Amino acid sequence: MLEVKNLFVSYGRIQVITDFSFNVGAEAVGLFGPNGAGKTTLINSIIGLVKPRSGEILFEGESLLPYETHSIVRKGISVVPQDGELFPIMTVLENLKIGASYIKEARDKVNERLEFVFGIFPVLKERAYQLAGTMSGGQQRMLAVGRSLMAVPRLLILDEPSVGLQPTLVTELFEKLSMIKSEGVSMILSEQNVRQGLKVIDRGYVIENGTLAIESTADDLMHNEHVKRSYLGL
Ligand SMILES: Nc1ncnc2c1ncn2[C@@H]1O[C@H](COP(=O)(O)OP(=O)(O)O)[C@@H](O)[C@H]1O
Ligand SMILES: [Mg+2]
Known about the structure:
The strands form 2 sheets. This protein has a 6-stranded mixed β-sheet with strand order 6-7-8-3-9-10, sandwiched between helices. It has a 4-stranded antiparallel β-sheet with strand order 2-1-4-5, with helices on one face. The protein has helices spanning 39-46, 69-74, 92-101, 104-108, 110-120, 122-126, 137-149, 167-182, 194-200, 218-223, 225-231; strands spanning 2-11, 14-24, 28-32, 54-59, 62-63, 77-80, 155-159, 186-191, 203-208, 211-217. It has 11 helices and 10 strands. Helix 8 links the parallel strand 7 (155-159) and strand 8 (186-191). The chain is globular, with a radius of gyration of 17 Å. The protein folds into 2 domains: 1-76 and 154-234, 3-Layer(aba) Sandwich (Rossmann fold); 86-152, no CATH class. Helix 8 runs parallel beside helix 9. By secondary structure, the protein is of the alpha/beta class. It binds adenosine-5'-diphosphate and magnesium ion. The site of magnesium ion (MG) has 5 residues, from helix 1. One of its GO terms (molecular function) is ATP binding. InterPro entries: AAA+_ATPase, ABC_transporter-like_ATP-bd, ABC_transporter-like_CS, BCAA_Transport_ATP-bd_LivF, P-loop_NTPase.
């Protein structure tokens, strides 16, 4: 579905991604690494916010590099950015509808899509008429994910969705991500919280200083000595 090949990305003279390759099929893939490793830069490259210096990014065989972000989103890639970007003085329902508004296919079945999102996040249905900005941090994160799902993505990219959430809420949110995965949505999960992330993903890539450190299945990563020492505190 998505294939990133030999990607190099620089900000000015500073190279932050060096020869990074990864791929995503019908599965959930983890992108794990410490702060500053290059996870957001990779995500921004996929959705056209950052232009790579060299390399290739293919979505269903077609290069995404010539396209602007809005065209990439229309192809079926939706991102939950690290800093949510909800509309705080709009209701939950209005925020969700905006998620579908950019894409004709999604606009045409907005009610069906709302039922899908409410099925995963019942709290968003209960609070449909509440202003988004008045909800708790955990609920706002759920709304950000729900809004991305309104666009009927085939690939959902989440940039560190657990940041700032209490552990119980992280567990709840990641259970929802597992539900979304089981609905057949492919996923890239960028995380520093590797322990929780491993529960959701099928395979993962560890990125350190902009280069690939380890690539393996969730099971193997869980038992990898480097992962245990550096990310699981074992
Ligand atoms: N707009 C930018 N200009 C210059 N350097 C940046 C910019 N954005 C990120 N960086 C640098 O690139 C590196 C990777 O950052 P980032 O992709 O945000 O990592 P992560 O998401 O894994 O924390 C870091 O060293 C960061 O300081
Ligand atoms: Mg980041």
